[in-house]
Design a protein that fits this description.
The protein is an alpha/beta fold. It has one domain: FMN-linked oxidoreductases (TIM Barrel). It is 37% helix and 17% strand. The protein has an eight-stranded parallel β-sheet with strand order 3-2-1-11-10-9-7-4. A three-stranded antiparallel β-sheet has the order 6-5-8, with no helix packed on it. Strand 5 and strand 6 form a beta hairpin. Helix 2 packs across helix 3, helix 2 packs parallel to helix 9 and helix 6 packs across helix 7. The longest helix is centred in the first third of the chain and has 19 residues. The chain is globular.
């Protein structure tokens, strides 16, 4: 890798649009999770995932990211049963997916890379750098280990989106977000930086997005939470892309399945905005 390599163009190469919208496919609780539905079993998990994938694609999103979002409370090192279950579900539904897809194993970048590599995923999103105080305890990372693992398993083509403003956590430093973005770009060579609100569905602060965008030279910036039809134009006027989930659900509620009509309404607004670019 050349240290001066420009990674800013990979988004359009992968998604074939400017300002791509990556939609989350939230998997139902998996075996080993506290809320796993033993009666419904893995059949229910697969059927729910198929429903959401079809609704998201029909609604017009540009990419999909599979996540064990309902594996609450999250682990910072995924258990093997969860990793195996995620890979199984993605394997069952991947033939339905006609757009680029990625993997987010909460909150474990190594497992995310492993599942993406095994299932054909093109990107991951995770907490890969930094140290945080969170609802899940002290949250430490090792970005060098993650980068070397990606290389070791032959996954250098898998893009890594670094969440530098994680949900339900605070950076254990007095450094401002612009400084964190600058040094993360220089030291870690992320393929993208994600900026979040407090929790899933919470609106990302546009001013913080702007601070991060202005701080880095090449790295794409993603609005990571809280985009909806009312604020998406404002957010993608700053951000290079969006990771989106809750607003696509029935009644805009985190725990509900995807509503195809809500997806289409959102994407129609995005497509109109792209005509101005």
């Amino acid at each position: 890798m050349k240290f001066t390599e420009d990674t800013s163009n990979w988004l359009e190469e992968l998604f074939h649009v400017k300002k791509p919208i990556i939609a989350m496919c939230h998997l139902q609780p998996l075996p080993g999770d506290p809320y796993y539905d033993e009666e419904g079993g893995m059949e229910k998990v697969v059927e729910c995932a198929k429903h959401d994938v079809i609704a998201l694609q029909n609604g017009g999103v540009d990419g999909i990211m599979f996540s064990n979002e309902y594996s609450l409370p999250y682990l910072t090192k995924m258990e093997p049963i969860t990793l195996a279950a995620m890979a199984f579900v993605i394997g069952q539904v991947k033939d339905l997916v006609k757009i680029p897809y990625g993997v987010n194993c909460l909150w474990d970048p190594i497992s995310s890379l492993d599942v993406a590599k095994a299932t054909g995923g093109k990107f991951i999103r995770e907490i890969i750098s930094g140290v945080y105080a969170s609802d899940f305890g002290i949250w430490n990372t090792n970005s060098g280990e993650t980068a070397r693992h990606r290389h070791r398993i032959g996954a250098d083509h898998i893009k890594m989106l670094y969440n530098i403003v994680p949900e339900a956590a605070v950076y254990l430093s007095s450094r401002d977000i612009a400084s964190i973005a600058k040094t993360t770009e220089f030291n870690c060579k992320p393929d993208g930086l994600c900026v979040s609100g407090l929790t899933a569905g919470s609106e990302t602060d546009t001013q913080v997005l702007s601070q991060v965008k202005n701080a880095v030279k090449k790295t794409p910036i993603f609005c990571n939470t809280g985009c909806n039809k009312d604020n998406v134009v404002r957010q993608i006027s700053v951000a290079d892309g969006v990771v989106c989930a809750t607003t696509f659900k029935v009644d805009g509620k985190f725990e509900n399945p995807v509503d195809e009509a809500r997806v289409k309404e959102f994407m129609d607004i995005v497509k109109e905005f792209r005509k101005t670019l």
